[in-house]
């Protein structure tokens, strides 16, 4: 059973108290902060899209930890709401082009950073990894995904898993389905979805375009397998091949079994319909677990979860990370923020609220929920692949082209053959 929000907060207090006792027992030691400049900064503007829900709660918890670690610095909240981060990214691009960067900004680790790096917008912060011993704190696979031509440009605050199905046991039981079933393939799952459809409830609840791209990537992963899915991004898998065509047909079948009003919803709305028993299933990253827990829902009774059918043993990875922009007004403040998000207590406080898992491998799992403990185990034993919808697999230009093609297909503007051709063109153009 997952702990509800008060339980997570209680654990955070226990964790903080333990860390404080450790600090107090070694007063003669030098401070552990990595901020070494003579002149102390007085503020840091942190630009994110964490403006509501569990994301905002996670940010608030992180800010509280930052205030404890760096009380001399004023935190300036630069969060921008809307569009699953789309509105924030648009405003950020305008500011960067105007040479008005925030002190630090949130971005998905991986290929999403490519455009910023190639444009010379980001500082190489590899030296901070050495200074703070992060190369040993973060898993080797993660370090490899963060490294570009021998340099590292971001520090992750967390790890999320994208390939998760969330389900309502009561809706499944009403359709004559086993609430504990996990399904071995997309084809098996479609049979279950049709059983729900026969009851008059929504089989699959999804939302606006980015959540559709999220669904698309998990179907590609399920049908192609981890190697061929990864090959979509390194050029070894043919986007115009028959295997991709079959996966796109499955994606179309899932859209047909989803809600017609998806374009008017954002992801919390789609998840809420599963909570409320209006829909059976939702495919969403594991930030959704915080939504269920915040609502007081209990795993097994009120909700269940499992890997997207066909992706068992694969961890579809994404990570929120922070960078040091070239020309940041308060670079020492930015380094202080990076210090906090990379620390054990910063990652503990943030991830307890957000539902994700720490990027550090040395954070105790005992403070975290059952789901998070399972995700921690999976991240170290499963095959890791990179998320498309969340910036890890492909640069922004590719994602934009794929999103446009997906939106057109989801609204019935194109057929499967045209959709496949548009996807292939979007990848080739980037």
Automatic annotation (TrEMBL):
Q: Specify the signal sequence span.
A: 1-28
Q: Which residues form a coiled coil?
A: none
SUPFAM superfamilies from the UniProt entry? Periplasmic binding protein-like II
Q: What are the GO cellular component annotations?
A: cell envelope
What's the domain of life for this entry?
A: Bacteria
- Which InterPro entries does its entry note? Bact_solute-bd_prot1, SBP
Where does it live in the cell?
Cell envelope
Q: What is its main location?
A: other
**Keywords, A to Z?**
Signal, Transport
- Give the similarity note: Belongs to the bacterial solute-binding protein 1 family.
* Role this protein plays: Part of a binding-protein-dependent transport system for a sugar.
Protein name per UniProt: Probable sugar-binding periplasmic protein
Organism encoding this protein: Cellulomonas cellasea
